[in-house]
Specification:
Elements: H1 2-28, E1 37-39, E2 42-44, E3 46-62, E4 65-69, E5 74-79, E6 86-87, E7 92-96, H2 99-141, H3 147-186, E8 189-191, E9 196-201, E10 208-209, E11 214-220, E12 224-231, E13 243-247, E14 255-263, E15 273-279, E16 291-307, E17 312-314, E18 317-323, E19 329-340, E20 343-348, E21 355-357, E22 369-371
Parallel strand pairs: 1-22
Antiparallel strand pairs: 2-21, 3-12, 3-16, 4-11, 5-7, 5-10, 6-9, 7-8, 9-11, 12-15, 13-14, 13-16, 14-15, 16-20, 17-18, 18-19, 18-21, 19-20
Helix pairs in contact: 2-3
């Protein structure tokens, strides 16, 4: 009897515990919460065939530049300009020691003067010999001179004329020597070949100037060019007159439009590339020596583009809020490529046809239901 009572009590306790556990489990299950709703305009990413472009770097150069160097080996006496100075055509830039050259001019002038005096004396002798010959012709007609005497007088007249001709040639040579000496003297004064700006000063007074060794670099005033290289696989798509987008970071004027002015016909055998020169528009702050890049067209390829306005930066990372089929926004990190107007190429993290939040700003929209219009 006692055993039956104990079993009944145990059964009642276990039933009570089960009912309590069932009641507690119903109380612990919370009701599902609906996501927060946010209002936003939606835009779409698009998959399309786009023109592939290849960025080629280069350097800005003056359209014309000149390297100033000496033509005679003489010490430098003066350098009259500094880097950055503006110069005009014909302006004196460098003066070399001209002592030896002036001595050469004086020596050639003296030799020329001596020859000129000899020439004058020879002309006088020739005139006298010619007048004597004229008199002997009259005497010959009168049979007053022997043939031998007449021949001697005639011979002296001919020799006098030959002497005049020889001294005339010497005089011409002396004049040429004077002109050459003066030209050499002029080489001791180096002048600007055109108006422009001095971009480099490479020597100082006291230095021995040697022929061909640069002393100054001058860039002509006027338009600038971007020198860049294009691989031989792309050169067939480049032609003179083509408009090419150019960026020069040092200017800060955004994108420029360059014009292909020249394609060097021979490729560099080491790099298998062709040098291309682009005319650049007149731009404030643009200077020779700046670093730039040009976007040359390549072939077409598939690409995904999205409005630039849908991209936000989280630190140094680019992100978009992509809206799924249930209207829930997800923060998606993306890798961006080139910009095309108001759109930007998305290299990874996004496919075509996805809905994106436009102009999300600083709002935290991840996990929120987006209500808006395309």
């Amino acid at each position: 009897m006692k055993l039956r009572m104990m079993k009944l009590g145990t059964t009642l306790v276990l039933s009570a515990v089960a009912l309590m556990a069932l009641g507690c489990s119903h109380e612990a299950t919370p009701a599902a919460q609906a996501p927060v709703t946010a209002q936003a305009q939606l835009v779409k990413s698009v998959a399309e065939q786009g023109q592939q472009s290849v960025a080629m770097t280069g350097t800005v150069h003056a359209k014309e530049s000149a390297t100033i160097s000496a033509q005679v080996p003489e010490p430098i006496r003066q350098v009259l300009v500094q880097a950055g100075d503006r110069v005009r055509a014909g302006q004196l830039l460098v003066v070399l020691d001209d002592g030896a050259m002036r001595a050469g001019v004086n020596q050639a002038s003296a030799a020329g003067a001596a020859v000129e005096k000899q020439q004058q004396a020879a002309k006088s002798q020739a005139a006298l010999a010619e007048s004597t010959l004229a008199r002997y012709r009259i005497l010959q007609q009168q049979n007053s001179v022997s043939p031998q005497e007449f021949d001697e007088v005639q011979k002296r007249a001919e020799e006098a004329q030959l002497q005049v001709q020889a001294l005339t040639a010497q005089s011409d040579a002396a004049k040429a020597a004077v002109a050459g000496a003066r030209t050499q003297l002029a080489y001791t004064q180096l002048r600007a070949p055109f108006s422009g700006v001095v971009t480099a000063r490479l020597a100082d007074p006291g230095t021995l100037a040697s022929p061909g060794v640069p002393l100054l670099q001058i860039d002509r005033d006027g338009p600038l060019q971007l020198y860049t290289s294009v691989d031989e696989s792309m050169i067939a798509t480049v032609r003179e007159g083509m408009k090419i987008p150019v960026k020069v970071d040092g200017v800060g004027a955004g994108e420029l439009t360059g014009t292909v002015a020249q394609i060097v016909p021979a490729a560099d055998p080491a790099s298998r590339s062709f040098q291309v020169k682009l005319d650049l528009p007149a731009t404030q702050g643009l200077r020779a020596g700046m670093y730039g890049s040009a976007e040359f067209p390549g072939g077409t390829r598939g690409m995904v583009v999205a409005p630039q306005s849908a991209v936000v930066m989280r630190g140094s990372l680019a992100c978009v809020y992509a809206v799924d089929g249930n209207g829930i926004a997800q923060l998606r990190y993306v890798t961006l490529g080139n910009r095309h107007g108001d759109e930007v190429e998305v290299l990874s993290g996004l496919t075509g046809g996805e809905s994106l939040v436009n102009n999300p700003g600083d709002r935290e929209l991840a996990g929120k239901r987006i209500e808006g219009q395309q």
